[in-house]
Write a structure and sequence with these properties.
DinB; Four Helix Bundle (Hemerythrin (Met), subunit A); metal-binding; DinB/YfiT-like; two-stranded antiparallel ribbon; metal ion binding
């Protein structure tokens, strides 16, 4: 593993970055809650995965990836270990992973955000870019959930209400 540090002027604190990410997670949780249970696990558009599968992907990335960053473990990404069958199970695991994210995020020093890390043994970027990828991926999949809800004739939560 290569470690490269870059000097930068601070744009935001790590606490602000976590708050931003958790705002997105709060909104995604509300999107999960908006789905009727059956459609959460079965409905899709254009061959895309049902929203529950997209949420399992998000659950499988955030907490495990931060744990890997903190422990300097580049173990591969795996979403096979969690197969929920109810909305309640999905939301419970979402909440558990929120706590995992909070715990491990708080263990990353300001200096480490600039270090290069080979996430899941596949993506070699600075830690802050890996975290931004987690947020971007969540926004992308939440957008798919919005399309599904609209296709079902349902109004999704307002995207700007993240808290």
């Amino acid at each position: 593993m290569t470690t490269t540090a870059i000097n930068t002027k601070q744009f935001m604190t790590s606490e602000q970055l976590l708050e931003h990410w958790q705002g997105h997670r709060n909104l995604t949780r509300r999107v999960i809650e908006s789905f009727p249970e059956k459609e959460l696990f079965e409905f899709s558009v254009g061959g895309m995965r049902p929203f529950a599968k997209l949420v399992v992907e998000l659950i499988s990335i955030g907490g495990p990836a931060l744990k890997g960053i903190v422990e300097k473990n580049m173990e591969g990404y795996n979403e096979e270990g969690f197969n929920p069958t109810t909305k309640a199970e999905l939301l419970n695991k979402w909440d558990e992973e929120t706590e995992v994210i909070n715990r491990y995020f708080g263990q990353i020093s300001e200096e480490r955000f600039q270090e290069t890390f080979n996430l899941f043994g596949q993506y070699e970027f600075p830690v802050y870019q890996n975290i931004l990828y987690f947020v971007d991926n969540e926004i992308h999949h939440r957008g798919q959930g919005y399309v599904y809800l609209r296709a079902l004739g349902m109004e999704p939560p307002f995207f700007w209400e993240r808290f």
